[in-house]
Write a structure and sequence with these properties.
By secondary structure, the protein is α+β, with helices and mostly antiparallel strands. The protein has one domain: Kinase associated domain 1, KA1 (TATA-Binding Protein). 32% of the residues lie in helices and 24% in strands. The protein has 3 helices and 6 strands. Strands 1, 2, 3, 4, 5 and 6 form a 6-stranded antiparallel sheet that branches. The longest helix has 22 residues, at 2-23. The radius of gyration is 17 Å and the shape is globular. The termini are far apart.
Length: 153
């Protein structure tokens, strides 16, 4: 009986954190004055293709079409992913909120188009907690693989 109560309380706490994360404004998102995505926070719950630390670095996404074609195709592609919601967009930048399947934790996923390199720089960061158990890296790896399988714009 005590175990059941403990499990119910733990699940309630987790769900409460998920609801809290959904309403928290992201601490540091967007493009810096230097023109890069914001650096990762000190906690190990974010990855960034522009981070020099190999533990936090992920590969950017390449593209081959024109910048305009790629932006349109990529925006449609990411917007069609389950539990992704577009929150901000400029000609060179996209900000999405992505929620986890089980508890609905909200993470911030960002993309920056670098036309002269034909790359899409990317960053994914949890809003709450210390560790994400690799969820942000897995999310971007999955997107990278799926994007590579898309027909060229």
């Amino acid at each position: 009986m005590h175990i059941v109560i403990a499990i119910v309380l733990a699940l309630g706490l987790i769900k409460g954190l998920a609801v809290y994360s959904a309403h928290q404004e992201p601490a540091a998102i967007g493009v810096t004055a230097a023109g890069q995505l914001q650096p990762c926070p000190p906690s190990p719950n974010a990855v960034n293709s522009e981070d020099p630390d190999p533990k936090r670095r992920v590969e950017p996404l390449p593209y081959h079409g024109t910048p305009e074609q790629t932006r349109a195709a990529f925006t449609r592609f990411v917007s069609a992913q389950p539990r992704f919601s577009l929150k901000a967009q400029t000609p060179d930048y996209l900000h999405y909120e992505a929620s986890s399947f089980l508890f609905g934790f909200v993470d911030d996923v960002e993309f920056r188009f670098v036309d002269d390199q034909r790359l899409i720089q990317c960053r994914s960061a949890s809003r709450v907690g210390h560790s994400d158990l690799g969820a942000n890296r897995k999310r971007l790896d999955k997107l990278r693989t799926a994007w590579a399988e898309q027909p060229l714009p």
